[in-house]
Amino acid sequence: MTKPDKKEEENSLSKNKEKEEENLLSKNKEKGEENSLSNNNEKEREKTVEDKLKETEEKLLRALADIENQRRRFEKERQEAFDFGGFNFARESLSLLDNIDRAITSFKNDNNLKNNKDLDKIIDGIEIVKKDLISIFKKNDIKEIECINKKFDPNFHQAMLEVEDNTRNPGTVVQEIQKGYMMKDRLLRPSLVSVTKKREEKAEKTTEADEKEQKK
């Protein structure tokens, strides 16, 4: 059996070394790919977590905004309830004031009561009640609507009659049939009014044919 010469041994060692280096490179490459894949997965996980945090934050902000809107709406409704809690009562009280005015007018215009010595005292007593009621209205920001000589406004006035008048602009309030009232910036009752309209011009002269017809 012949022994391998020195050159063959060196070639064999060189090949073995090359194989070992190839194996090492292959392992390093696989390891690098694994590390790259791992890093990519880690980045994906980080991105997913970040997206979830962002989504959660947005939901939280929307929820807080909804809560704030509800709080403001509740506060507004509470304030309106406080401001106008007596709205219906105030509107019904206007009928009482109307009846007081009617009673005073009726007493003053009743000829049978003119000679009654106690009439003035009765009227004075009713006037005191009226003043007290008006004082209560003022304390609750209930005010009369000014309408005479004002431009008709459907937001505050209700036209009951039209009066022909060329001395004023059409739509001018010239008579107040029933007083209107406001409670703060809310309408309690519109004023019932008469407004002007342009007088219709009529022919003052008849035609010659009409005159002849009349002479016949």
What labels would you give this structure?
216 residues, three-stranded antiparallel β-sheet, 4 helices, 60% helix, Nucleotide Exchange Factor Grpe, Chain A, domain 2, three-stranded mixed β-sheet, alpha+beta
Characterization of this structure:
With 216 residues, the protein is of the alpha+beta class. It has three domains: 12-83; 85-140; 143-200, Nucleotide Exchange Factor Grpe, Chain A, domain 2 (Roll). Helix content is 60%, strand content 14%. It has helices spanning 6-83, 87-109, 119-139, 208-215, and strands spanning 142-144, 157-164, 173-178, 181-183, 186-189, 191-197. The strands form two sheets. A three-stranded antiparallel beta sheet has the order 1-4-5. Helix 2 (87-109) packs antiparallel against helix 3 (119-139). The longest helix has 78 residues, at 6-83.
